[in-house]
Amino acid sequence: MEQNGEKVIEVKNVKKVYRMGRERILAVDDVSFEIYKGEFCCLLGTSGSGKSTLLNLMAGIEKLSTGQIIIKGKNIHKMSEKGLAKFRQRYLGFVFQSYNLINSMTALENVELPLVFKKVRPRSREKMAREMLTSVGLGKRMRHRPKEMSGGQQQRVGIARAFVAKPEIVFADEPTGNLDTRTTKEVMNIIKDIAKKNNQTIVMVTHDRSLAQYADKIIHILDGKIQEVEVVDREEICEVNAAEAAQQPEVKAVTVEEAISKLNQEQENIKEQVEIL
Ligand code: ADP
Ligand code: MG
C-alpha cells in the first residue's frame, strides 16, 4: 500500500514508565511509527505488551514519560487540559472493550451523548444518532437500554457513539474482546465499513492475530517495543450485513440538563467516561 498520503498520527520515540513503589515498569519503550489518513492500523501483541498504554498515550488519556505524539500536526502532550479535551471532541472517537455505555440511558441517548457535549442542537442530534444506529443495524433498538441488549448489540451502540460525530480518528481497545466469533466478525465489518466509507483512520488494539486481517497496517508489539511493522496488501474481505430496515419509534431527545442528571445517577465509570467523550 502506498504510504504517501496525509500523516495523521506520528509517534516519536515515546516512552512510558510506571512507578510502583520502588519498581519501574517500562510499559512503552522508545516506540516510533506513523499512521496515514484512512488507514486501519492494528496494534497487535500479547497481554501486558503495552498496547493499551500506547493507545491511551495516543489518545491523550495518559501522560507520556518522554517523546512526542503528533496528531494532525499538533503535539497533543503540549496542549492544555481544556485544549486537549476540545481536540478530542473534535477529532477523536473511542470504542471500549466493555462498551462503557450509560446504563440509565437508551441506545439513542447514549449515541447522542457526544453530540450533547459538542452542543449540537437536539433536533439534529437526534437525527444523527438515529441514522448512525440504523447504519449499525439497530434501527429497531433505539429505545432499549444497555441491559436489554446483547453484547454485540451493545458494542454496536458503542460504535455508533464513537462514529456519530464523524471523528477523523477512532481508537478502539480490544473492541471485540467480550464477543463471540460470529459477533466479532459482524462488529469488525461494521467498523471497517464505516471507516472506509468516510475515510476515517482507525487505531485498534488486539491480542487476536485473526483480527489483523481487517488492518492495512499491523504494528507488532512485544515488551513495550515494536517488533515489526507490517503493511498489508489489502483484499476486500468484508461483507457488511444489510442494515435492518429503519422503523423509528417515538423517542424524546434528551436535554443537556437531563443528560447530566442521568449521568449523576450512575455509579460506574462515569467520570472517566465523560472525560474521554
Ligand atoms: P496490554 O494492553 O498490551 O495488555 P498494558 O498497556 O495494559 O498492556 O500494560 C503494559 C505493562 O504496563 C504491563 O506490565 C502492566 O502491568 C503495566 N501497567 C499498565 N498500566 C499500569 C498502571 N496504571 N500502573 C502500573 N503499571 C501499569
Ligand atoms: Mg490492554
Automatic annotation (TrEMBL):
Keywords: ATP-binding, Nucleotide-binding, Transport. InterPro entries: AAA+_ATPase, ABC_transporter-like_ATP-bd, ABC_transporter-like_CS, MacB-like_ATP-bd, P-loop_NTPase. Belongs to the ABC transporter superfamily. This is Putative ABC transport system ATP-binding protein. It comes from Anaeromicropila populeti. GO terms for molecular function: ATP binding; ATP hydrolysis activity; transmembrane transporter activity. Residues 9-248 form the ABC transporter domain. SUPFAM superfamilies: P-loop containing nucleoside triphosphate hydrolases. One of its GO terms (cellular component) is membrane protein complex. The keyword Chloroplast does not apply.
